[in-house]
Amino acid sequence: MISDIKVPDTSIVSQAEELTRSVSSDMVFNHVMRCYWFAELFAQKEGAKVDHELMFLSATLHDLGLTDVGRGPHRFEIEGANAARTFLTGRGVPSDRAWKVWDSIALHTLDINLFKDDDARITQLGLLHDVVGVADAGLDPADVAEVVRRYPRLGFKQSFYDLLAEELHSKHPYEHFHHSCTLIAHSSSELVMPDLRAALNGAPFDD
Fold it and tell me: What is the pLDDT of residue 119?
């Protein structure tokens, strides 16, 4: 049950939440917090032994690249990972732990985290569930509803789409090297591009 989950009571967790709250819109802040809580629910469901502090840091800092503190010329997940690592090392977090957070954030727009250790994999499940939904997630509907009650979605589907569109248009042309096989598929007209709006709308939430 969600009542059994306790946020790690450490200074860096408090500082990370404070940073994210101070630089994010309400929509983005609520999103990253839901991602953390969904990740905790997945960990609980699986009975996984995870590093809860690392999960919190990776989840709550993962969209810094869409805020002023993480904006830069590179794609937002790289800029956000850099901003998170700088923030963490500047507050005494050991380099190896800061790099683990960097990895989770830098890779979160791909599927690679789903094949890594439980800390990264389960954090990624939390992110995915909030954005597009995880098929057969198996989370208790009452727990999911409680997460959304604590951190309302605030029109997330449309607002997040608009935020990503802004990210794209602010960095035109958007340089993002795709997987080598997708480049072949694109050049041979075999590539079917997924529709992000449809993916967002497929999440198991109203907005």
Answer: 98
Domain tally, the chain: 1
User: Which residues in 15-35 are b (16+ Cβ under 10 Å) and which e?
Assistant: ebbebbeebbeebbbbbbbbb
Range of the domain at 85: 2-201
Structure tokens of 95? 């380099």
* pLDDT tens sequence across 40-84: 999 999 999 999 999 999 999 999 999 999 989 999 999 999 999
Domain-embedded: residue 207: no
Asked if residues 24 and 145 have their Cβ atoms less than 8 Å apart, the reply is no
Q: Is residue 134 part of a domain?
A: yes
* 120: in domain: yes
Residue 42 lies in a domain: yes
Q: What is the mean pLDDT of residues 85-114?
A: 97
Q: Is 108 exposed, middle or buried (0-12, 13-18, 19+ CB in 10 A)?
A: buried
